[in-house]
Amino acid sequence: MSENSQLLPAVSSFLSSPRQLLIDGEWVDAKDGKTFDTINPATEQVLATVAQASAVDADRAVVAARNAFEAGSPWSKMSPRDRSHLLWRIGDMIDDRIEEFAQLESLDNGKSLASARGDAGVAAELFRYFAGWATKMEGTTIPMSVPGREFHAYTRREALGVVAGIVPWNFPLTMAAFKVIPSITAGNTVVLKPAEQTPLTALYLGQLLLEAGVPAGVVNVLPGFGDAGAALVDHFDVDKVAFTGSTEVGKKIAAGASKNLKKVSLELGGKAPNIIFNDADLEAAIAGAALAGYFNEGQCCVNGSRLYVQRDVFDQVIEGVAAAAKAIKVGDGFDPSTTMGPLVSQEQHEKVMGYVAGAVKDGANIVAGSPERAAETGYFFSPTLITGVTEDMAVQTDEIFGPVITAIPFDTEDEVVAAANNTVYGLAAGVWSKDLGTAHRVGSKLRAGTVWLNTWHADDVTLPRGGFKQSGWGRELGSFGLDDYTELKTVIAELR
Q1: Which domain holds residue 292?
Q2: Where is the Aldehyde dehydrogenase domain positioned along the sequence (predicted)?
Q3: How many Cα neighbours within 13 Å face the side chain of 165?
Q4: In a domain, 461, yes or no
Q5: Using 50, 70 and 90 to split pLDDT, how confident is the model at 5?
Q6: What angle in degrees, to the nearest 10, is found between the helix axes of 226-234 and 55-69?
Q7: How many domains does the chain contain in total?
Q8: Is this prediction's pTM over 0.85?
Q9: What is the tens place of the pLDDT at every residue in 334-390?
């Protein structure tokens, strides 16, 4: 059966006409009329033509978001309880359309339909989780008095204003939800800039938000390239930038935001160490190491791409992970047997191939996989396991963002902790040991925002996520996820 014959009517309809920008509740063309094509990475064929936002369009969207935020607007008049009901309704609507979102994400990003369904389910759950917080962003009452005078003092949390959400291509819908949901939960308005490689689910989400009753201008969607994102960062009427992506771009955003000291939250790159001790449950650790490194085609900032294995079980673990890599079915995301789709783009494909070829040139050994493309058509790449790596090789130090694991043996705890922390990143890490004392002790020494013990990729929307060092600023999700989307105001009144 062909891919097109499997498409739901709503998805076919969505793809059949040029996709526009969402500004102030209306679908509009880019001011200069420019468009770009979004590509199916499995077939290298054009999926849809999309309006390409410019700096002028970014200004239009910010103006719309500012007007929607200001006092007297329908959004500013909406009570926290009504916002809560709206968020819950949106979550239910996404649940009703999970297959539509999944098909669009699989087509645009390349991941399997099963993975895309999971991402859509997370987005739905995020809306419902934050619906509960909309009515609970309370301040505190502070007793205050001096001799002969009494005061009533309290704090309150208030929305920031206009939030620019700039999101990556590896989890297009989930990352859009990460930015939109806490923003509107707190009463902010949003200009969402999806990655140019994967704009479709963000646009489909914008369509759903309008149907759900989100007022005009509260959420605006600007597909486009880096110039549109830079215009949002530079805009003096944007109060906060929330960004997920590379550390290199994150540094540029931090510099640009300093012009008017707008708030910034950043979830950036990672090169997570995954440590397996000789007393670990090796069957679980091997399966966990494969999941850690190859999840989402390796295109995940918290993936465990640096594998450290205690020397006396190194060969056994490597044999197991290599077998797991070879068992992964690489193919089109619409094929039910596929467990790994293509990489997102030609650029990413060439980047990953280059890193693996470079490792071979530097003397490393490929135990599973290949530096070559895995198919003549499509950006497919085989899950790869590399040994004979040294700590100074680029394949070991750089964030590759592909299904590539490097493996190095170790002897002592102190040795592996030092090696694990020898990175500019600090997003995630993992430890495998049956001795919980060892697992917790080593975990406490690892400089990372998330540390998994005897598991990997276990997660929940109630838990904060973010990084140490050059892996970012701030935290997303959980109750902590609202802190960066609000201002804290103190009010002091003398009682007379």
Answers
A1: 273-453
A2: 27-491
A3: 30
A4: no
A5: low
A6: 50
A7: 2
A8: yes
A9: 999 999 999 999 999 999 999 999 999 999 999 999 999 999 999 999 999 999 999
Contact yes or no for 336/329 (Cβ under 8 A): no
Q: Are residues 187 and 278 in the same domain?
A: no
So which residues are the catalytic ones? 267
* 386 falls within a domain: yes
Single-letter code of the amino acid located at 51: A
* Longest pairwise C-alpha distance within the chain: 84
Instruction: Give me the helix-helix angle, 200-212 and 80-96, nearest 10°.
Output: 130
CATH of the domain at 371: 3.40.309.10
| Same domain membership, residue 402 and residue 259 | no
Q: Are residues 190 and 279 in the same domain?
A: no
Give the containing element (helix H, strand E) for 193.
strand 189-193
Q: Nearest-5° angle of CA 88, CA 91, CA 97?
A: 145
> Is there a single domain that holds both residue 214 and residue 291?
no
Spatial separation of the C-alpha atoms in residues 401 and 300, rounded to whole Å? 7
Q: Are residues 479 and 437 in the same domain?
A: no
Domain CATH for 83? 3.40.605.10
Question: What is d(CA 399, CA 180) in angstroms, rounded to the nearest whole number?
Answer: 27
324 Cβ neighbours under 8 A, 6+ residues apart:
286, 287, 289, 290
Structure confidence by residue, pLDDT tens digits, 169-220:
999 999 999 999 999 999 999 999 999 999 999 999 999 999 999 999 999 9
Confidence of residue 145 (pLDDT cuts 50, 70, 90): confident
Q: Helix 226-234 to helix 247-257 angle, to the nearest 10 degrees?
A: 30
Q: Do 237 and 311 belong together in one domain?
A: no
pLDDT at 146: 74
**Mean pLDDT for the stretch of residues 110-117:** 97
Residue 79 CB contacts under 8 Å (≥ 6 apart), including other chains: none
Query: The tokens of 221 are what?
Result: 């969607």
154 bridge partner residues: 141, 491
| Cα–Cα distance measured from residue 234 to residue 243, given in angstroms and rounded to the nearest whole number | 14
- What is 250-288 written as a DSSP string? HHHHHHHHTTTT-EEEEE-----EEEE-TTS-HHHHHHH
Mean pLDDT score of the chain: 95
Closest CA to 405 of 495, 278, 315, 271: 271
β pairing state of 365-368 and 306-310: unpaired
Pair (288, 418) in one structural domain: yes
- Six-digit token string for 207: 């369509």
Same structural domain, 28 and 160:
yes
Answer yes or no: is 464 within a domain.
no
pLDDT digits (tens, 9 = 90+) for 237-280: 999 999 999 999 999 999 999 999 999 999 999 999 999 999 99
Distance between alpha carbon 136 and the CA centroid of its chain, in Å? 26
User: Does residue 463 fall inside a structural domain?
Assistant: no
What would the two tokens of residue 423 be? 């990175």
